[in-house]
Amino acid sequence: MAIMCCVQVQPKGEMTVDEFKTWLRRFDSDCDGRISHGELKEAIRSLQIWFGWWKSRQAMKVADSDQSGHIDSAQEIEKLVNYAQQNLNIRICKSGW
Fold first, then answer.
1. What SMART domains does this protein map onto (predicted)?
2. pTM of this prediction?
3. Which of 11, 56, 62, 68 is most open to solvent, judged by the fewest CB atoms within 10 Å of its CB?
């Protein structure tokens, strides 16, 4: 029997990049280590942001540089972090200090 520990992470206030990634992983419904447009839409919807469906589409256009339909590389995550800071009002710092 496996024992799982769940940490509830919600982007309020300031968070680190690792905390942002942890929050985003909650929405990786197929557990493939990549974030699809649908998963990103659910993540942004959870923030209760106006026009979340549109912002998720814009985020994919900005971050999915190889147009695979998934956020799946460190470079794409970095682009998503930048998008979240500029357009979703999430403050993300580079380190915990």
1. EFh
2. 0.81
3. 68
